[in-house]
Amino acid sequence: MSEPADSSTYSTYRRLARYVRPYTGRLIVGMLAGFLAGGSVFPLLQQLPEVIKPFEIAGTAAPAAGEKKTGAVENIVEKLDIRMTEADGRMTWQFMLITLWAMPVVVAFRALMNYLNNYYMRWIGMRVVRDIRDELFLNLEEQSLAFFGKSDVGQLISKCTNDTGIVEQAVSNTVAEVIRSPVEIGAALFFVAWFSVRQEMFGLVVLVSLVFPLCVIPIIVMGRYVRRYTRAALDRISTLVSRMHENFTGIRVVKAFDMEAREAARFREMNKSYFRSVIAALRAELLMTPLMEGLAILMGCLFIVVCYARGVRLYQILPIGAAAVFAYRPIKQIARINVCLQRGAAALERIYALLDTDTRLPIAATPVRVDGFRDRVVFDHVSFRYEPDGPEVIRDACMAIQKSHVVAVVGETGSGKTTLANLLARFYDPTAGRVLLDGRDLRELDVSRLRKLIGIVTQETILFNDTLANNIAYGAEDAGPEAIQEAAKQANAHAFIMAEARGYERIIGEKGFVLSGGERQRIAIARAILRNPPILILDEATSALDTATERLVQEAIARVMENRTVFAIAHRLSTIRHANLILLLDHGRIVERGTHEELCRADGRYRKLCDMAAA
Ligand code: ADP
What we know:
Elements: H1 8-20, H2 24-39, H3 41-59, H4 72-79, H5 93-141, H6 145-150, H7 153-198, H8 202-211, H9 216-249, H10 251-256, H11 260-310, H12 314-355, E1 376-384, E2 394-402, E3 406-411, H13 417-424, E4 432-437, E5 440-441, H14 447-453, E6 454-457, H15 468-472, H16 481-490, H17 494-498, H18 517-531, E7 535-539, H19 547-561, E8 565-569, E9 581-586, E10 589-594, H20 596-602, H21 605-614
Parallel strand pairs: 3-8, 3-9, 6-7, 7-8
Antiparallel strand pairs: 1-2, 1-4, 4-5, 9-10
Helix pairs in contact: 1-12, 2-5, 2-7, 3-7, 3-12, 5-7, 7-8, 7-9, 7-12, 9-11, 9-12, 11-12, 16-18, 18-19
The structure holds adenosine-5'-diphosphate (ADP).
The site of adenosine-5'-diphosphate has 11 residues, from helix 13.
């Protein structure tokens, strides 16, 4: 994977900010609270010289007469004519009372602001990730079948869960501090500047402003590593999830081929490589703080040496030391925030790539909302290939499916029968030619209206891990229990459903695990009957069923075909004898067409197929 430029951390989060916009009100409250919580360091620091000074006075000589008074508190105290210290340097009772009152007020205020800041910022973080997840799911649902043909489901699931999880952590853990820590550092720096100017130590201001940015170097360098290894880790965890998904869904094959140990070994290898990238990211993360501390100590030493050389008095530098102690926590926080942000950026890049995927079929400017099927579906010189540079799977197909007719398509496996059905349901658009419904190109139609007209009973019956009733009512959510039962009866499914105590409320396991093949087919047929579409695509099952079940399924199929226009993909010739039109497909080309009798009379390939089937 190519490595994106680091400057994109900014653009990554700028895009994330778009998701924050709807919650601006909360953001302002949260930020304001953060600002106040962070900024309240300053008044605390301001008092420090006053707190320290009595010690100095007591410990050494009294300050020289006429020396500048320092500190706002002292000014206020003086104006109110309240003495802070007795003549012997002990604190006065007035000063003690003021301090006793002020300290809890400041602390309570700070705690409240912290709470508001954390609550609102984290709320926004969670909410943003919730919105992203919703958008991601919707966007994926809308992708074309071509996209899902190429994508790895495990990887998609991993991106929707692991990657959004990382973003959730990144946003929730940082968004509160993102505002607070810089404010705290700013407050400490401002205090140092203010104090230095007051003490006429201008050199110090210059020194701090020159040396302080050095602290940021390890944050930037190590941050890059964190991002790189996190990206690798996310790629690898996706592969892990994908392996798990493949293995668990194909567990029968794994077991049948006795591949459990081999699969476990492969999994261990991948897991190891995931572990390695996580550890590499961790190393970079953990190195960040000591590197920064090293630099900070170096700066501290330099500062002490400069102060000593200039003969600065201790009480002049102690407040600066205190400011450094105050700034230490937020600086460390900034390092931590950066780790989270870099991790989040790695995940966000992958999420954005998915969000920017648009493989949806083109939507007409003014889609026609058809409300019924009246006349015919026509394939007008339709050609199709799945890949732009792949082989042509359908070649110049022309045919018409009249209303209430049964059109059956036969041909060898891979001749393009399913592809024709896919084009009819507009799962794909033809590469050349048109598919017309009542004279209108499918591309002009509103897709959801089109799909309402078409029911599909496929070979592979897809059922969901839900109750039987809900599976039958899939796509017809407003159907009542009577309608569901009626559909099940027509599909010859009612009897086996009621044979179980829970009846229609029975949960059928993932993909209908608890049902037999014939039962699953009848549920799928009941589903189509309930939805009652005018056009039915029937992909007959190839799997062999026992004679009794087959008869039940055939009966159900006959019922679902009644009064409908049917496009049937036939695997057994016996079932299509009565079709109004039979198409014989060979390598994507319709090579023979007609009724059963006509084709038999023509004595072509269809006749040979019939003879072979009869033999
Ligand atoms: P049939 O239903 O007659 O067995 P299909 O319509 O499924 O045939 O497939 C026709 C051809 O198209 C086959 O060669 C198959 O490999 C190819 N094909 C089917 N689906 C896809 C796909 N999603 N991507 C690429 N090729 C495909």
